TrEMBL record:
It comes from Janthinobacterium psychrotolerans. Residues 121-179 form a coiled coil. This is Membrane fusion protein, multidrug efflux system. Residues 387-417 are annotated as: Disordered. Residues 315-378 form the YknX-like C-terminal permuted SH3-like domain. It is found in: Cell envelope. The keyword Coiled coil applies. InterPro entries: MdtA-like_b-barrel, MdtA-like_BSH, MdtA-like_HH, RND_pump_MFP, YknX-like_C. Residues 115-183 form the Multidrug resistance protein MdtA-like alpha-helical hairpin domain. It comes from the Bacteria. Residues 1-21 form the signal peptide.
Length: 417
C-alpha cells in the first residue's frame, strides 16, 4: 500500500507536465490552422468602377445656348401735345388693343384753337368767293371797254392771293383738329401695357414718357452662336430655309416652345468668336415675356457631320487634360486605356463623339478618379445613362414580401437546429 502511494505521488507531476505539453501542442496546431486560413495578397483586380458600352444610333444633332427673350415691338408712349392729364384709362400690366385710349389730356384749349382756325378758314373762303365774283364782273366790263386791262389784272391777282389765304387757313384748321385728337393718347400697337409713369393732374410736354407697350403675340429669343453653329445654319437661314429652334424657361424641363431661326448677323465678333442670332416664337399663351432668361436648343442637323449615325457617351465619362478631352477604355484584360476623344454637341442627354471611340467599346462612366492609365480595374457594367447620384428605386411590394418570407424561413430553420 505504501508503494502504491509513492507511485501515485510520482505520477502527478508527470501528468501535469503532459497536460501542459498537450495544451502547447494544441495551441501551435490552432495557430497553424489559423495561419493556413489567412488569404493570400489581394488579387490584382483593381478598384471597382462602373463601365458602359458606347452607344451608336441615329440622331438629330442640336446645340444648346443661353439667351434672352425680347419683344418684337416695344413702344414708349409719349404725348404729342402738352397739357394737364385728366384721365388714365388702363390698368397697369393689362393687355390693350391698338387704338385704345390710354391717357386723356385736357382738350379745352385745343378745342378753342379748332374753333378759331375754323372761323379764320371760313372768313378766307368768303373773301375768295367775293373776289371771284368781282373778277367775273370785271371781265364783262373789259369786254365792253368800260374798265382798263390793268384793273382786271389786279382783280385776278387779288383772287389768287385770297385762294392762297384759304388754303393756309384750311391747313391751320386741320392742324388744330389734329392737335385736338392728340389729347387722347392711344396705344399704337396691341400688347401689354406697363404702369402709368405720370398720373392724373400732372402737366406734361412732348418729352415726357407716359408708359410703354410691348407686343405679346410673337416674341424674339436672341442668343450668341459659335463659329461651328454659324457654318452649319447660316447658309440655310440666309436662303430662307427653315431652321428649327426650341426654347425652355428656367422653370420648365426640356424645350417645350418651338419656333424658327429668323436672323443671323452678317459677321462674327472677332473678340469672342460668336455671332448674334435671333429666333421667332408664337406666344399664344403669353408665357414668354421680354427679358426672361431662356435655354435655347438649335437644330444643326442640316450640316454634313450630322448625317448618319453618331456615337454617344455620358458626360460623366469625359475627363479634361489641359485642352484635351479623354476617356478610359476598359479592354478584355480589364485594364484601363487612356483614349483622347473629340466631342460634338449634346444629344438627348448624351454627348456626341466625333473621334476616338468605336461602337460597343466599354468606357469608365463612374469612378474616373480611381483609374490610372494601364492599371487594372474591376468593371461593373451599367447603362450609359446611369446616374450614381439618383436615389435607388424602392423595392416593389412583391419583392418586399419575398424578402420577408425568405427571412422567416431562414429563422425557422435556425430555430429547429
Amino acid at each position: 500500500m505504501k508503494n502504491v502511494q509513492q507511485i501515485s505521488v510520482l505520477l502527478k507531476p508527470l501528468a501535469a507536465s503532459l497536460a501542459v505539453a498537450g495544451l502547447v501542442a494544441f495551441s501551435l496546431a490552432g495557430c497553424d490552422s489559423a495561419n493556413s486560413k489567412v488569404p493570400d495578397a489581394p488579387a490584382a483586380g483593381g478598384p471597382p468602377v462602373s463601365t458602359a458600352a458606347v452607344i451608336e444610333k441615329q440622331i438629330t444633332e442640336t446645340q444648346e445656348f443661353s439667351g434672352r427673350l425680347e419683344a418684337i415691338e416695344r413702344v414708349e408712349i409719349r404725348s404729342r401735345v402738352g397739357g394737364f392729364i385728366t384721365s388714365v384709362n388702363f390698368k397697369p400690366g393689362s393687355e390693350v388693343k391698338k387704338g385704345d385710349v390710354l391717357f386723356v389730356i385736357d382738350p379745352r384749349p385745343f378745342q378753342a384753337e379748332v374753333s378759331r382756325a375754323e372761323g379764320a378758314a371760313a372768313s378766307a373762303r368768303a373773301k375768295a368767293e367775293l373776289a371771284k365774283l368781282e373778277l367775273s364782273r370785271a371781265e364783262k366790263l373789259l369786254a365792253e371797254k368800260a374798265i382798263p386791262q390793268r384793273e382786271l389784272d389786279e382783280k385776278a391777282s387779288g383772287l389768287k392771293e385770297l385762294d392762297a389765304n384759304v388754303r393756309a387757313a384750311q391747313a391751320s384748321y386741320e392742324a388744330a383738329r389734329l392737335n385736338l385728337s392728340y389729347t387722347q393718347v392711344q396705344a399704337p400697337i396691341s400688347g401689354r401695357v406697363s404702369k402709368a409713369e405720370i398720373t392724373v393732374g400732372n402737366l406734361i410736354d412732348a418729352t415726357a414718357i407716359l408708359t410703354s407697350v410691348v407686343s405679346t403675340d410673337r416674341i424674339y429669343a436672341s442668343f450668341d452662336g459659335d463659329e461651328d453653329t454659324y457654318l452649319r445654319v447660316a447658309g440655310t437661314s440666309q436662303k430662307g430655309g427653315p431652321v428649327s429652334v426650341k426654347v425652355g424657361l428656367a422653370n420648365e424641363s426640356g424645350f417645350p416652345h418651338e419656333g424658327k431661326l429668323e436672323f443671323v448677323d452678317n459677321q462674327l465678333d472677332p473678340a469672342t468668336g460668336s455671332v448674334r442670332m435671333r429666333a421667332t416664337f408664337a406666344n399664344a399663351d403669353r408665357m414668354l415675356v421680354p427679358g426672361l432668361f431662356a435655354r435655347i436648343q438649335l437644330d444643326t442637323g442640316s450640316g454634313p457631320q450630322a448625317q448618319g449615325t453618331a456615337l454617344l457617351i455620358s458626360d460623366r465619362a469625359v475627363g479634361t487634360d489641359q485642352s484635351r478631352k479623354y476617356v478610359y477604355v476598359v479592354g478584355a484584360d480589364n485594364k484601363a486605356e487612356y483614349r483622347a476623344v473629340k466631342l460634338g454637341p449634346n444629344a438627348n442627354g448624351l454627348r456626341v463623339v466625333r473621334e476616338g471611340l468605336k461602337a460597343g467599346e466599354k468606357i469608365v462612366v463612374n469612378g474616373l478618379q480611381r483609374v490610372r492609365p494601364g492599371a487594372p480595374v474591376t468593371p461593373q457594367l451599367v447603362a450609359m445613362d446611369f446616374d450614381p447620384t439618383a436615389p435607388a428605386a424602392p423595392a416593389k411590394p412583391a419583392e418586399k414580401d419575398a424578402k420577408v418570407a425568405a427571412n422567416a424561413a431562414k429563422a425557422a430553420s435556425t430555430s429547429k437546429e
